[in-house]
């Protein structure tokens, strides 16, 4: 099978780069996002072969898919990295992302049985191993700086803990995370993990990360990097579970399935889009949002409108509370044709219109093409999520979290027409106990191994909301 392993920017920079060149990078130099030159197409014989591999080993399926995009890591090394990552010990089951059947034609795909009980572990655990491998190979070190209000930070810390050449400085708003989420991060005793509890709100944390990253001299001197959701390796790791879910839900490759995806920054569902571009028989990609409906508005109208901070709501599915969707530019570039003309138009929309007008509207002709890509969308309210959690418990004796409830509610709204629909379960309910108590009247079950998490000794430093204080801390503790 012919495949491309060079990466280009959605805004037109075509400097040839391999996977390892972009692994540790954020944005491309022109402000765009990295994508492969072309998506490898999986032919019928390969899909059939992968079905056999998937039945035996998620890690080996991951190896097959990743190899199509990674030419600069020797295959024996890549296979060892994925086998070390995707184990039943780390992800709870040998299937890694098993299905839970709800009713004929409707199942949950469990993506949240990794160490921090949210789907971000699936990609982040691989990223930790890839970062370590690449840094050791280069003889370099990296200081990862991030801001979190919950899931991303803890997934990153659990992926990077104990890794050679990597240190993590994770900012979180002091006293504002749920006790469970806080304990997941602060109980880590690894010397390379630094929890900085900032006296402020999440936006203050993000502003500090921006200020430090904009100090280019500091950034270079201390080798500052990030692990945010625009990282291509994270997206690529997520492509694998769309294939794994498809093979579990179907008997033959003539069948088609739909996926319903609780969405925030458009990373998860963008991976589904990539799987579909590769030829996985996906009927619909159902984008589910909460009250922060930037994406739902786009898929209904062709209008993409970035929200102001004051128009961004705090909801009961907080990991989907976004003002803009940072991976969305990748889809728009594909929608427009994934070529030099598409890059010109993408640069105009994202580099000029958004900064000037806070958004853009596609032409009717451009928007018409969305249909060919399988996308539909919908949104849920808090009341919808609570009702969906209650209903799912009553009918199937299955307890879901508020993000998964967004996905299930929106999937049902699209009528589940004739195709099996897989709703991606993106977190376990224990992480969002308050909403579960509201819906069910009692605390959700705690998975084995998480008893007493909140009473473990905590390791964190309280710090004023000042980029100078954070810089001093990094300078003192960095590798
Ligand atoms: C991050 C997250 C999401 C949103 O995923 P995106 O890739 O940003 O679209 C949904 N649910 C949970 C639980 C998350 O942690």
Characterization of the model:
This protein is of the alpha/beta class and 479 residues long. The chain has 20 helices and 15 strands. The protein has helices at residues 19-23, 44-56, 58-67, 75-85, 88-91, 120-138, 151-160, 179-186, 202-214, 216-221, 232-249, 267-277, 294-301, 328-335, 340-357, 364-368, 382-396, 402-413, 433-440, 467-477, and strands at 7-9, 34-36, 99-103, 106-110, 142-147, 166-173, 193-199, 224-225, 257-262, 282-289, 303-305, 359-361, 375-379, 420-425, 461-464. The protein has a 6-stranded mixed β-sheet, with helices on both faces. Helix 2 (44-56) runs antiparallel to helix 3 (58-67) and helix 17 (382-396) crosses helix 19. The chain is globular. The two termini are 42 Å apart. The relative contact order is 0.14. The structure holds pyridoxal-5'-phosphate. Pyridoxal-5'-phosphate is lined by residues 118, 120, 151, 229, 262-268, 319-320, 403, 426-427.
Any chance you could write out the topology, listing elements then pairs?
Elements: E1 7-9, H1 19-23, E2 34-36, H2 44-56, H3 58-67, H4 75-85, H5 88-91, E3 99-103, E4 106-110, H6 120-138, E5 142-147, H7 151-160, E6 166-173, H8 179-186, E7 193-199, H9 202-214, H10 216-221, E8 224-225, H11 232-249, E9 257-262, H12 267-277, E10 282-289, H13 294-301, E11 303-305, H14 328-335, H15 340-357, E12 359-361, H16 364-368, E13 375-379, H17 382-396, H18 402-413, E14 420-425, H19 433-440, E15 461-464, H20 467-477
Parallel strand pairs: 4-14, 5-6, 5-8, 6-7, 7-15, 9-10, 9-14, 10-13
Antiparallel strand pairs: 1-2, 3-4, 11-12
This protein binds pyridoxal-5'-phosphate.
């Amino acid at each position: 099978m012919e495949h491309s392993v060079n990466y280009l920017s959605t805004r037109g920079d075509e400097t040839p780069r391999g996977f390892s060149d972009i692994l540790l990078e954020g944005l491309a130099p022109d402000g765009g996002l990295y994508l492969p030159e072309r998506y490898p197409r999986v032919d019928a014989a390969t899909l059939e072969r992968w079905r056999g591999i998937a039945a035996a080993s998620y890690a080996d399926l991951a190896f097959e898919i990743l190899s199509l995009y990674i030419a600069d890591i020797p295959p024996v090394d890549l296979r060892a990295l994925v086998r070390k990552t995707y184990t039943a010990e780390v992800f709870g089951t040998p299937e890694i992302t098993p299905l839970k059947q709800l009713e004929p034609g409707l199942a949950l795909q469990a993506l949240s049985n990794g160490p921090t009980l949210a789907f971000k572990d699936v990609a982040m655990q691989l990223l930790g191993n890839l970062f370590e491998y690449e840094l050791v190979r280069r003889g370099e070190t990296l200081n990862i700086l991030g801001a979190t209000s919950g899931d991303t930070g803890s997934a990153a810390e659990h992926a990077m803990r104990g890794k050679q050449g990597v240190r993590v400085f994770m900012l979180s708003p002091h006293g504002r995370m749920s006790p469970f989420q806080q304990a997941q991060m602060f109980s880590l005793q690894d010397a390379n993990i630094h929890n900085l509890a900032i006296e402020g709100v999440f936006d203050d944390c993000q502003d500090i990360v921006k200020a430090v990253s904009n100090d280019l001299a500091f950034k270079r001197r201390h080798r500052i990097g990030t692990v945010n959701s625009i990282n291509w390796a994270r997206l690529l790791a997520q492509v694998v579970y769309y294939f794994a879910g498809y093979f579990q839900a179907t008997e033959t490759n003539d069948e088609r399935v739909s996926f319903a995806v609780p969405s925030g920054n458009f990373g998860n569902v963008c991976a589904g889009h990539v799987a579909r571009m590769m030829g996985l028989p996906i009927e619909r990609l159902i984008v589910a949002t909460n009250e922060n409906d930037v994406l739902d508005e786009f898929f209904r109208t062709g209008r993409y409108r970035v929200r102001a901070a004051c128009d961004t709501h705090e909801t009961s599915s907080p990991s989907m509370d976004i003002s803009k969707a940072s991976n969305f530019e990748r889809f728009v570039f594909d929608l427009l044709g994934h070529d030099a003309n598409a890059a010109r138009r993408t640069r105009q929309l994202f580099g000029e219109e958004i900064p000037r007008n806070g958004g853009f509207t596609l032409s009717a002709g451009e928007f018409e093409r969305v249909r060919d890509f399988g996308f539909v969308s919908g949104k849920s309210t808090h009341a919808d999520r609570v009702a969906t959690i209650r209903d799912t418990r009553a009918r199937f004796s299955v307890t879901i979290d508020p993000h998964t409830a967004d996905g299930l509610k929106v999937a049902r709204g699209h009528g589940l027409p004739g195709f099996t629909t897989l709703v991606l379960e993106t977190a376990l309910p224990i992480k969002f106990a308050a909403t579960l108590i509201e819906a069910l009247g009692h605390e959700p079950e705690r998975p084995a191994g998480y008893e007493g998490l909140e009473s473990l000794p905590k390791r964190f430093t309280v710090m004023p909301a000042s980029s100078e204080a954070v810089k001093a801390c990094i300078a003192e503790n960095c590798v």
